[in-house]
User: Fold these one by one.
Assistant:
Number 1:
Amino acid sequence: MQISVGPLTLKIKYTDVRNDTGSIVYQRPVPKTLRHRFTGKLIKHDLKTKDPLVAAKLVVALNKKYDALFAALENSSDMSPPAVRARAEHLLKTYGVAEGDTESAAADLLIAHFDSFLETYAAGDEETHRDAVPADFLPPVELEALNLMQGRKPAAVLSDALSLYLAEHDKRDDPKFAGYVRARFDELLTFKGDVPLAAFTKEDARSFVESLLTRSVKTTTVRRYVRALSAVFSYWQKERDANFRNPFATVRIRGEGKDAKRRTPFDGPTLQSLYAHCREADDPLRWIAALMIDTGARLAEVVGLALSDLCIDAETPHVIYQPHPWRPLDKSAESTRMVPLVGASLWAARRVIESAQPDQKFAFPRYTTPDQCKANTVSAALNKWMKLRDIDHVNHELRHAIADRLRNVGCPIEVRYAIEGHALGGVGAGYGFGHGLPIMREWLLKVALKD
């Protein structure tokens, strides 16, 4: 942005003005070489001021901070503990020395290499030479190589916990899951570095959380970050070190929930209006929305349906929500379920079947392939479409709406949970198959939308 001071016009780099508040925002691109260490391409800070002169002073301070941060990350990117260890192992291999070997001729040659560092360090002073310990004179790679030669296992570092977690987790082959966990861990490593696990404390975890809040990350988002990181450390504790204390296990988040945007629930007229818009558009995107309206399914569950999951000719028309190679079910075992088709959802299912091409495999081939289900694309498109029609809701609120609607007509919780795919001490699962369909249909008809 530009400011005028008398006859001079100055440009403040990395700034823009928010359209809604007029507040000046600092937004600086992350260098391409470091983007894997951050969650986005831009670093943003609302400077909480409309005064360009005040903003200019804040920008100077922020530029100094990020200049130093970027330089440190660039310079140390190949000296993290895992990188040092890898280079130390390569050094041993170059000399032909095995780990734990200090007696072979090859080991003697490598020790002579280490001694050359000592000679340089001592510079001819006998007392310095006598009192020096390897940590005084060996660079990190050589010091790690010496530890390996002497049979000392390197201290576990933060990234070791991540590697173990992603190597053994049931969802390790799910790119979305692995990518999310890696992104959260990259933020932690950017904040603290790949330090030894034993050196990472609960205070460090608190400081990391506070740094997220300082960046104006919503507390609900911070809680998701904390859960992801806590799961990694909890697994390390369980599988590798029972004495390790999970630093994220009981971390509190300042002001948690107070920054949440309170939305009013879908009311009957708004739902009816949404259904009318769906029937008017009458295309795959709107069929997805309508399927959610009267089944309360998660968006990805609907987008990833196989055509054969829609059973409209059954005695009780229903949809089967079950895992597929292109779309696993992310939640509990109860997510695999059958749900009766009524109202808006029955209309949508019929339109999908009527419009299907010969040999069609997916209910929504525009958004589903053998490799993936493009639920995020659908979500963005639906939310934008609803907003343009003055429906101030997001598509996921349709799932909350079915819970409210069923609760308001006195639907038993075990039936409601079976419809929604929630666990309830094993009770709800029985309603999802065979004999439970008529029971669920009876309750869904009490709230189903009319044509």
Number 2:
Amino acid sequence: MAIAVNTKAPLFTLKRRKDGAFEEISLADNIGKKKTVLIFIPAAFSSICQDELCSISAGLDQYAALGAEVLGISVDNPFALEVWGNMANIGFPLLSDANKEVIAAYDIVCDDFIGYKGVAKRSAFVIDEEGTVIYSWSSDDARVLPPFDELKAVL
């Protein structure tokens, strides 16, 4: 079961590659400043994940207007996420949780994704400025997308 609403969000620092260089992004950087939307996906380059992230990217200004930054997280390596993000024109950071520590902390480890173990369940969280989880959604069915209208209503 995913981490519950009204609990402190597990802090993390993850890497991404951008323009061929590594960059670390920490959830703690947003605490006291803005809300954070965490979007966990099972696998880069999959059609459902691409549709999901491209849809979010196309409406990124809506999240910014609501005072939130969007971060995408996958257990894929940062090299693959950089290539995929560039190919799909995804406009927000794609972070690599290759060590699977963040998906464990948020309790969203999928034990069977088309035969693969230890990927992220498709999940969405909103973390407020104080670092508290104010929205928590996760699905055991990777084909089901988060209810984005519900998520935006929380923002």
Number 3:
Amino acid sequence: MTKVEAFLRPASVEEVRKRLQDLLVNGLTVTEVRGCGKQRGFTQHYRGAEYAVTLIPKVKVETVVQDEQVEDVVDAILDAARTGEIGDGKVFTSPVSDVVRVRTGERGRAALL
């Protein structure tokens, strides 16, 4: 099993969700987050005052999938979220040693389905 975490623009989340649903990805967690990468933020003007916005609003999308699904899931996220501009986001994958469904105690593949 592999955990896929994607930090994306908020505008791309609905398309990513649709693509993952098409791949029959069952569980998905979406969290509003703020951070910065290569962009390092931007400067805004408000009522004549200038201030720096250093933490950009992003959305974190997380799911755990079977190892054979990882490439399809990552490709779906990239296709749905890519605009070609700085700030499109990042996708991280990491191995998951086990998963347990709290309600039934099922483990591994059975807990993901």
Number 4:
Amino acid sequence: MCLFFVLSSYLITELLLRENEATGAIHLKEFYVRRVLRIWPLYFGFIALCILLGWFYPPWRLDWMRVAGFVFLAGNWYTGAFGYTSNPISPLWSVSLEEQFYLLWPWLARCGRRVTIALAAATLPFSMAMLVWLASQGADSDAAVWTNSFVQFLFFGCGALLCFALRRSSLSRSPWRAGVLVTGGALCWFIAEAVTQIKAKGGQPGAMQLCEGYVLVAAGSCLLLLGFLSLPASAVPKPLAYLGKISYGLYVYHELCIYLSRRLFATVDHGFTLAAIVSLAATIGMAILSYELYERRFLKLKERFTFVPSRAA
């Protein structure tokens, strides 16, 4: 999740900078239209599906306050206050948070390079201060802390800073370099999870523990992104590149597919393994169908409002 936030910020910042260089301005209306066409059709379509599933399956029934939170792009705040739901809508809290970033960042990017860099850099001390305050309140690290916008903005800030840093230098592409960076990033993540345990369910880590853990996650996310960017284009197989195109659908549908697969194989020998295989295949299948039959219709409209095309996945 944090890697996705870093990547999203990196890409959006790069596209905004390129648009400004190519046209002399950042076009806010077109930016928001592009984001709406990319995010909202699947986001709100899946919310509607989850509401419908709740009507037929009582354990997934959603209270209307939670629905309102997600509809008004505040699903992360509702989740932080009242916890997760068993309904497959639960992972969409991160989409709400990402939309909050999209709402703010283009306006800030228009303030100029120095101001934008300073604001991105300010996310680190600001997020650390928020973590200290949440720890003093005994906040649950798995919900109240993890879904907090002011905490997660740290990763958006890292992505933006990485974008500015890489624009001033050429990144050498090498499988060996990529391997070292990815290994380092994975190690940071492992330490954050195993040692600091910042996402332990029901946990209440201290302020120092939280700050150390989130810094490690941020460092790991940046190293992983640098590792992927260091891969030569020829080293990325076409099927893997295609998975990058449908990654939004993979994320949206994965929990629904996992739950259904586990229910299907609950009483079967080696059911956990079978459920994992089937859920993976089902998630990819649903994401492909969603992308090809539904999302692409809106992506074609999105091209009309694009000044600087993004690189192919």
